[in-house]
Amino acid sequence: MKRHLRLLVQYFAQYAKVRLAYKADFIIAFFSSMAATVLGFGFVLVLFTKIPRLQDWSFNEIMFLYGFSLIPLGFFNVISWNLYDFSELYIVEGKFDRVLLRPVSTLFQVIFEKFRLESLQEVVTGVAVVAICIKHLHLAMRIPDYLWFVVMIVCGSAIYLSVFLILTAVSFWFEDRVGIVPPVFNMLNFSRYPLTIYNVFIQFLLSWIIPFGFATFYPTTHFLGRTAFTLYFHLVPVVAAVFVTLAILIWNRGVGNYSSTGT
What we know:
Layout: H1 2-21, H2 23-50, H3 59-79, H4 81-92, H5 96-101, H6 106-112, H7 120-137, H8 143-169, H9 181-185, H10 200-209, H11 217-223, H12 230-257
Helix pairs in contact: 2-3, 3-7, 3-8, 8-12, 11-12
């Protein structure tokens, strides 16, 4: 563990140095990412100019949920770059052979070889929005609540990572340049709003099949005082642990199934 943590710091420092060497490219990527975040909030603002409440959710509650969702998503986006290109770069082009030759975990290498540094703005923006909403909603946040907040962020990031890692690992069996990651990624937008506004099928899908609801919606219900979801809130760490374990098992099975391109 100590060795991998040291390698992680070195990976990040080296990649950040290379990435920031091209300042114009980084600045463009940063503002593009920021623009996408602002547009997301803009949609919520426009929505609430037409309606006073979304079901029984107020504007500030929706903003709290939306802001919270950005934090685990931001951490995930920082390290998820290789998951989107894995099928094409590592399987189709055979670059996974290079990963296998190194005396370091294959999963560790794939995840931490690249970083999307500009996505850190999502974390900062999410924290700022949540802090503003806490003030406007007059939420009484105590020390245990802040500890739970950190735990929920870690669990949410782990859920995102495990879901997309499972989808990425499918490439070991089905070689496809595009893969199935992009369509599922688009479903993230559904989890930025209360699951109760969707029909039963969508609620079930985002809770028990692709558990994005456990990464964002159910954690926020505790801080917003919605006791009807208390059980789901306490299940968040369990769901995160189950999906992380499942993702690692599928990844390891996929690595065992991998056959080189021979080039």
